[in-house]
Amino acid sequence: MHHSPNCSFEHGGRTNGIDHPAKHDEEKHGCLSTKLRPAPESSSGVAVSTWLKQRLLFAGQVILFTIIVVQAVMLYRSLALASACGIVDAGALRRQRASSQSSSSGIPQYYQTSPELFPGPTPTGEPAFLAQTNPAPFPSTTYIPPSPLETQVPIQGNKDDGNIFHMMGHYFPNPDGFGVDEYPLPQNATIKQLNMLSRHGARYPTTGSGAPMLAEKITNYTTGVLGDVEFTGPLSFLNKWQYKLGAEILVPVGKQELFDSGTLHQYMYGHLYPNNGSKIIARSTTQDRMTKTAEYFLAGFFGLDWPSNATLVLAIEGSDSTWNNSLAGYDNCPNSNKPVSAGGNNATIEWYNIYLADATERLRPHAPGFNWTVTDTYNAQSMCAYETVALGYSAFCDLFTFEEWQGYEYSVDLYFAGGYGFQSPTGRAVGIGYVQEILARLQHHVIDHPVAQINLTLDNNTATFPLDQTLNFDFSHDTNIMAILTAFGFTQFAPF
C-alpha cells in the first residue's frame, strides 16, 4: 500500500495497543483512488518490465512506511498506551515526558511515581476532627517514642522501673504528652482555629558543644595526639570508640517524630483545612533542620504532595546580617547573647559540679593520664542522649546511676529557666514578637507597628500573613519556645 504524506488515512483495528492501517481494496495514489491492478496478461517485455517496476516501487514504499510507523510507535509508546486506556491527560503526559527526558536513570516512564499513570481509584474521605468529636478523655500518653531506639538500658539505682530517657529534657521526646492535662471539648464549644508552634525533631549536637568537645578530647588521646591512654573498667569501650555523629541536622528518628506529629494533627484538626483548593501558609526558618522539620510535618499532615496544600515561608536565620525573625527571636535581642543572660548556663555549671562529683571520682581512675574532669562527666551524659537518638544505642548511658540522671534532668531545667524562662532578664523580650503575631491572627489584622522582632515584610502582607487561616503551623527552637511561653505569661512553666 502507498500513502502520500500529505493525505489523511484511516486506522482500523488494534493489536497489542498498536494502530494498524485499515484494510481497504483501494489505495491512495496522489490523493486519487485507484484499484490495485493485477499483473498484465500481455507477454510484452515492456509491459512486464513496467509492471515489475511499479510493484518494486510499491514494495519499497510499504517498507519505508512500516519503518516510520515502528519508530513512531517506539518513540510515543507511553502516549499510545495512555490514549488507548484514557487514564492520563495531556498535561500529565507532558510533565511525564519532561521528567523522563531530564532523568539519566533510564527507568521507563510507567515505573515513575509522579505523576501517577495507573493510580487506580483515588476518592478520599472526610478529614478527621478528633479534637472536636472525641467524647472521652484522651489517654494519659498521647505520644509514644518511636521504637527503633534502645531505651531500656539497665541503670543502677532504678528501683521504680523508671526510664532515664524521660529525664533528658529537650534531647528526647516527652513521653507524657504535651505537658498539660487533656480533656474532651466542653459541651457546645467549637474549635475555629489552630495555632501550633512546634520544635524541630531530634538532631545531631551543635558544633562546638559539649558532646563533640568530649569526642575530640577522647580521639586526641586514643590516637596519641595528646598522649597515650588505656581506658579500663566501665570506660574500656572508649579504646575502640569512634565519634559518628554529624552536626545540627535532623537524625533519622527526628524525621519520623515530625511525620508522626503531622499525622497526629491531621487526626485532631484535619477538618479545619479549607478544602476549597486554597493553600495555607506554614512558617519555619532557613536553617536546614528547621526547613526539613516543617516539610516532614506537612508530609505527615497532607501526604507527600503537600506542596499542593501548603506554601512554606522560610524566615532567614543564621546569615551574617540580622533579620527580624520571631521564630528565632534571640538573634534580634542583643542582650540575649551577653553575660547578662548567662544565668541559666552559670547555674547549670554550678549544679553539675555538685551532683556529678561522685561520678567523676568514680570514672577518673579508669582513665589514667586523661585528666577526666567533671565537665567531661557532664558531656558524657549529653553524649548518651545524642548517640541514642542518632545511632539507636549509646554505651555512655549506663555509666551513671538513676539519681545522677535525675540530677541531669534538673540541670536542663536550670538552663532553660535562667536563660529563657521566668528567671531570665531577657526571656520575655525574645518571645514577645511571636505573641504579637498570635494576637494579630486572633484579631484578624496585619502588623504595621511592631514592638519586637517582627518582620514587617512578611507580617504586613496578607499573602504571607493571612488573616482568615484556620490552620497555622509554625516551627521554632526549644529556647525560643520557652521564651514565647514566658512572654505569654504561662506561669505553670515558671517552677524549676
Automatic annotation (TrEMBL):
Superkingdom of origin organism: Eukaryota
Give the Enzyme Commission number. Answer: 3.1.3.8
Segments crossing the lipid bilayer:
56-76
Q: Which Pfam families match?
A: His_Phos_2
Answer yes or no on keyword Hydrolase.
yes
Per UniProt, the keywords (alphabetical) are:
Hydrolase, Membrane, Transmembrane, Transmembrane helix
Q: Can you name this protein?
A: 3-phytase
